[in-house]
Specification:
The chain has one domain: Gcn5-related N-acetyltransferase (GNAT) (Aminopeptidase, 3-Layer(aba) Sandwich). α1 packs across α2. Strands 1-2-3-4-5-7-6 form a seven-stranded mixed sheet. It contains five helices and nine strands. The longest helix is centred in the middle third of the chain and has 17 residues. With 225 residues, it is α+β, with helices and mostly antiparallel strands. The chain starts with 35 loop residues before the first strand and ends in a 23-residue tail after the last strand.
Length: 225
């Protein structure tokens, strides 16, 4: 798996993955809107993020310590979504040291109870928009294995919504990864324009996921949904 930023302990499974609903999970009840809050993670989110990654059933789960470090050192390039006091989803990412105009998306996770609501797309749009506004990043990168159709769809949709080019190239081969692992294909999106868009249209404060989308109390970031 890609090792992420070499300035921190190398996390396991640094490929970008998205879990889609399976089993009895169905579409949300339109009569029961959920209020999501998007904001930067804090170390207090490290444990819940590890548990959510484990619940996904498909992510390579890192140690709680790795998520705690990520929340401390890369909070500005990551996002968490909360529904009340529950962690609904998260995206972890970082700006590449050798290419600071590029945001690399490491992991994407959405809780089983919050799928089929476009939350992954909204988190990605929010994160890319926030990091672009603050740092001027122009590209988004992620690695996806050929069998991960959900991740492919997420990044294809993001590129389409932003009228941006999407290129693909093998970053790490099966030989490099070993153990019969599929190759990690680098998806590179950009250059990005402003404002950042998501499927369904540009992010706007009045277009929430089933309800108002506002940052949690005590955060400085602004929701762009």
């Amino acid at each position: 798996m890609p090792s992420g930023d070499a300035s921190v302990p190398s996390p396991a499974g640094a490929d970008t993955q998205v879990k889609e609903p399976s089993g009895p999970a169905g579409p949300p009840d339109p009569g029961s809107p959920t209020r999501f809050h998007l904001g930067s993670p804090s170390p207090a989110d490290g444990g819940p993020m590890e548990r959510l990654a484990r619940e996904s059933g498909g992510l390579d789960v890192n140690s709680t310590y790795a998520y705690l470090l990520w929340c401390r050192d890369f909070a500005d390039t990551s996002v968490v979504a909360r529904a009340g006091d529950r962690l609904a989803g998260f995206i972890t990412g970082y700006r590449r040291p050798a290419a600071p105009d590029t945001l690399f998306v490491w992991q994407v996770a959405v809780g089983p109870d919050f799928r089929r609501r476009g939350l992954a797309s909204r988190m990605l749009g929010h994160l890319a928009g926030t990091v672009r506004a603050e740092t001027g990043v122009r590209f988004v990168e992620a690695t996806v294995t050929p069998d991960n159709k959900a991740s492919m769809h997420l990044f294809e949709s993001f590129a389409q919504a932003n009228d941006a080019d999407l290129t693909r190239d093998v970053l790490f081969s099966e030989h490099e990864l070993g153990s019969g692992h599929e190759p990690e294909v680098l998806h590179r999106i950009g250059p990005l324009a402003r404002p950042i868009g998501v499927i369904g249209g540009p992010l706007r404060p009045d277009r929430a996921l089933g309800g108002p989308l506002t940052p949690p109390r005590g955060t400085t970031g602004r929701a762009r949904d």
